[in-house]
């Protein structure tokens, strides 16, 4: 598969008022292939939103490199970044976040096309509505006149207006009813296949990404702990944290899932050794001292654990 985006040991720190430092992303390397659906999964506060924004150059990084279509985007000027920006777009959890309440859907869709001086705006706007399954009558409606699901369709239409090759969607269905969630996930899947879009789908919910991920990367406290083929990871997770996330997904045959024990430690002072050792059911002495590196265990699977649950080879 052709590599579209490649992140290399990227780090992102936030300086807090007290002089303390929160390391949101602590050395993440990640590759997104052209047309690929990658799910970035983890609990809230694990750094996945920061990573998602960093991948698109929306937040500056402290170390590492991000190459998009071969260009190091951290080194591009605002002007050089503009054509690149059109090729990578973001969809947010809050469907109101990127919509102006005083602009109707037609204006919202035409805006990026006009800014980038595209021809045939009217036809393109109509086509975009079709793509996302909104009726033409939606053109004259304002953001507050849509349901949450319809508004997210409008955001997706806006995000694909300039024919991007990469979409980063940060919890795009978390605010929606479960029945609507499935429809929006199907829409992502459909657009991804029909337009050949690569999609980084950020979610705290493994049940949500199950349907759509070619590949899964699991994050914990700023690092990736497991990465691999979507179905294979779901069927046989190698990292105890992935196992715990999967066990937390409710199933008809197991109405009360066991909760993950304990809270996520603070990213201001992450535990030494393996960051997951304070919550890991199989932690041993070595885990408290030695950082497990993300290593290849075969079949495209990478895992950061001294005692992985599965040997893929
Ligand atoms: Fe658990 Fe140790 Fe693996 Fe960390 S390295 S996940 S503590 S077994
Ligand atoms: Mg988030």
From TrEMBL:
Indicate yes or no for the key word Lipid metabolism. no
Alphabetically, the GO molecular function entries are: ATP binding; ATP hydrolysis activity
Do the record's keywords include Plastid?
no
Membrane topology qualifier: Peripheral membrane protein
One annotated GO biological process: peptide transport
Give start-end of the signal peptide: none
Annotated Gene Ontology cellular component terms? plasma membrane
The subcellular localization recorded is: Cell inner membrane
List the SMART domains hit by this protein, alphabetically.
Answer: AAA
InterPro entries cross-referenced by the UniProt entry? AAA+_ATPase, ABC_transp_ATP-bind, ABC_transporter-like_ATP-bd, ABC_transporter-like_CS, Oligopep_ABC_C, P-loop_NTPase
* Record key words, sorted: ATP-binding, Nucleotide-binding, Transport
Query: Which protein family is named in the record?
Result: Belongs to the ABC transporter superfamily.
Task: Please give the name of this protein.
Answer: ABC transporter ATP-binding protein
Q: What is the lineage of its organism?
A: Bacteria, Pseudomonadati, Pseudomonadota, Alphaproteobacteria, Acetobacterales
